[in-house]
Amino acid sequence: MARTGGFPGRLTVALAVMALAAAAWGSDLPTVEPGMPKAAPPASQIVKLDADLAPQAPKSLPPITQIVKLEPANGETEVSPATKELKVTFDRPMMSGSAFVGDKPFFPKTTDKPYYADLFTCALPVSLEPGRTYELQIGADRSTTFRSRRGVAIKPVLWRFRTSGTPIDHHDGLSVEEFKERAVKAWSQLEYEIEHHYAFSDVRHIDWIGSIRSGRKKAAHAEDTREWIAAAVEALRDTRDPQVYFTYRGEIRRVAIRRAEANWNDYAEGDRLPEMDGVNSTFAFTRTADGVGYVTVDDLDETRESDFEDLPGMMSGLWDTKALVLDLRRVSNASEDLAARLAGWFTRERRLYALESERDFMTKGGWKSARKCWLEPAGNLMYYPRRVLVLTGPRLTSGGELLVMMLKACPNVAVVGAATAGFPARPKGVKLANGVTLYLPTTKCTLPDGTCVSMRGVVPDVFLDPGKAAYENDDPVCETAILLARRSAGVVKIDDRQLLAAATTRRRTPVLSAWWQAYPLDPSESRESYGTPAEQDTFFLGSRSTSLSHPRGG
């Protein structure tokens, strides 16, 4: 009875809703026959959900997404340290992505991931300290940034504020007078190290005395050690050297941050090669149907030492290949010892691969005698005797660059790709009077022929730098290396002119060949004398070269 009695009430409500809909739609109300799908109301009569959930956006919006409100406000100096969230409000509905960027000493400590409180406002959960200055950037100059729902990115904005209250003691238990005394002494040490031991103090042609002295006053009046570090970083900013940095209480503050674009495409590489056999977290390999081996290498830091136990087995599995491609483009860092263990597989003799000179103002000329760096062979039964093509790129730095230099000294090896980062030497740490440790490179590194690698990078024998767009749907470095490997193995017959056409016409990729003789040019002629800028971008051959069919060295 209860169910029956309730039905007329629900019918009445349904009829009332239909009557209201008819009044709203008028003559456009569709007729619904039994079994017919229900028609949607006209698009002009649909109210968008976004407008109901958030404040109404203005009808005419600027072409770039704007920030309309910051909580706390930019430049505010009395922010409560009890604030638990930093909020950014935009002028239009946003996508779910976010990007807050900054260095650790001034970037607030986060307690959770950013989230959107509504369609317009992004919140960053934080834990603030009293009496601290905070600094962070909203947005980034890359794909992972704030974007509106129509894909319009914001222009990065620097956000600074200071919390109220007494700062937490960062003076290591010293009085203010003792702290300032040590800060001044530490600054004098900084000046001395830069002037007398920094390897590249004369590279940028910078007025070091003026730059460092300009920050001395800020350092002397710093309220805590972090502000002292900020003054030092500002004074050294023109070095643009990511190997100059400071450490304090587990925090790192670099003078410069280097962001290099990746010169590979994992998907395109996977389409071109057979399925990789992942040996471990460091090595993976495969081989093409015509007998070309392909090995990819990940980082080679000290934690990967156990992975080298699988190296002999992997190399024995590639022993009968006709040529080998060794892909190092993903190696951002490497232990020098592990690098030598890998490179030793490609030489039977002890080989000189680098010269290192340490800066010393007391020595005539300002440099100590160069130290010779040698590569030892891995062993009699651990040697790959055929052609090897090593793939490089701008992500390679520090020990990774030393690995490339080792391989470049080996016979049968050619380097293909883009130049490395140019920071092969490991920075040296110096403890300053205020407890801060300064790290800076004190040595310069050259190839055995005197070619400087520091601040320049290892230039490949076959230089390929087609630009970021070329890697969106393809991997021209991988493609060219496989073509070279097939040619050197005799799998395909292709002359130098065809090779240049394959590497340039389709990808418009500049090729600098220092490995074989293609079209010898007069060394006195310059690049500018060859055609129009568009033609120069198609290809350029270097004048110093040897024969492709004869490997360099022994």
Set down the secondary structure blueprint.
Elements: H1 2-25, H2 49-53, E1 67-71, E2 85-90, E3 100-101, E4 109-110, E5 115-116, E6 121-127, E7 133-138, E8 157-162, H3 176-196, H4 208-220, H5 225-235, E9 245-248, E10 251-254, H6 266-272, E11 277-278, E12 283-287, E13 292-297, H7 311-317, E14 323-327, H8 336-343, E15 351-358, E16 371-375, E17 388-392, H9 399-408, E18 413-417, E19 428-431, E20 437-440, E21 443-446, E22 462-464, H10 476-488, H11 496-504, E23 511-513, H12 533-538
Parallel strand pairs: 13-14, 14-17, 17-18, 18-22
Antiparallel strand pairs: 1-2, 2-6, 3-7, 4-6, 5-6, 7-8, 9-10, 9-20, 11-12, 12-13, 15-16, 15-21, 19-20, 22-23
Helix pairs in contact: 3-4, 4-5, 8-9
Written overview of the protein:
The protein has 554 residues and is an alpha+beta fold. It has twelve helices and 23 strands. A hairpin with a 4-residue loop joins strand 12 and strand 13. Helix 4 runs antiparallel to helix 5 and helix 8 packs parallel to helix 9. The N terminus and C terminus are likely disordered.
List keywords for this structure.
alpha+beta, disordered C terminus, 24% helix, 5-stranded antiparallel β-sheet, 12 helices, 8-stranded mixed β-sheet, 554 residues, 3 domains, disordered N terminus
